[in-house]
Amino acid sequence: MDNKIELNDQEIARREKLPKYEAAGLDPYGKAYKVSHHASEIREICKKKNAKQLEKLHLTVSFAGRIMAIRRMGKASFMKLQDKTGYMQVYMGIDVVGKKQYDLFKLADIGDIVGVKGFVMMTRTGELTIRCEKYTHLTKCLHPLPEKFHGLTDVEERYRRRYLDLIMNDEAKAVAFMRPRMVRSIQEYLDKEGFIEVETSMLSPILGGASARPFVTHHNALDKDFYLRIATEINLKKLLVGGLERVYEIGRLFRNEGMDATHNPEFTTIEAYQAYGDLQSMRKLAENMIRKAAKDVTGSAIVTYQDKVIDFKSPFRWVSMAELIKEKTGIDFTSQITFEEAKALADEHEIHLDKFKNTVGHIMNEFFEKYCEADLIQPTFVHTYPIEVSPLTKKSKDPRFVERFELFVNGHELANAYTELNDPLDQRERFLAQLKAKELGDEEANELDEEFLEALEYGMPPAGGIGMGIDRLACLLCNQSTIREIILFPTMKDK
Question: For residues 393, 187, 470 and 300, what is the CA-based torsion angle, rounded to 10 degrees?
Fold first, then answer.
């Protein structure tokens, strides 16, 4: 097998420089460097100052970054360096740094990482610039960087080589900083409301907490298969039984399903549970939490997403699933409709049903998905769902329905909330119904979780619970059309 690396002329030239660094007594891959200021800090300190004021200030900085441009002019040169906060121009003069350091600088290529120490000045063209007095080589880049506008245009390649995307694409870097700011905002809100952040296991012996196809893995020591969790719900509810009262977890979930603009096999959610709460508690929590996150990330609760203005500032619409279906089709699923009548309506509207979707509730849910979801652009709480599609939810006054809402924004589900089912006998019946669905071929149906049922038998307080997609909210607040822009390393097909 031939493992020889094919190199182009530029890559060969860069590698040939490595011995020259070593001959000068330098490690081409450097050592620790003390940074005093980042680009954004320098610009903040120096804003509104002219050349004379900067000279008087004599701000001395140690700055490190990647070389993004070099303009050599004999005995004086300019560099453009990039750090995590932006760009700084650097002036290099042989009369300032001396011949030895200037010769070292001559070995530099675009993409190298270097450190410069000097004072900040203003050039005659008005550019804020570091006048380098000491130059330090830190890391050699062995590949030419892609061209700014032509080199990294393949979207798939951007996701595969995210490190290059972050170097070349300022927007990608901005998103990388905005997402954790959003998560921190959510944590701040929940912490202030008395919730405790917890961590629960990602491996589960039982498939439960949501309707989804799982990833299966094997534990060698126990010689037993486990599922990668599809939800954090079951363990968080056990903590309510234990008396923690208000808990939340921000963590990864895994679902063995397709990939598109709104789905990735591994993704991040937040789930929160509030003892002595209900669906209205979760409605208030969701609205306030999202509104705060929007303000903290974008500066406003009214955000622009693609070609739409999304209003998180006004109260979110509150409407039942049955009302929305009636608005679109004229069909009233709150009436005493039989399965045969519902099935005839489904056939008439070309709605295909899987064999395990054999109830009026399943048909109602299919009507909602076909006729209503896509039009829910502004934040909308859709409440009162059929019991068949909500196995962990408390019944409404009408036992055909449950106390559940899903929050839709821009035609997609963003959050899902329940008044939680805490009756262990009712919960057992729901699990048994799920087992029947599984036998009929529903790969997403929950399994019978005896351990969870036992926990409920000790008594779980009345509670509200909510789950929300962190990636989807980040898409909205960062104005990105696909979660692949939000997830730093999305799952990719093989080349």
Answer: 110
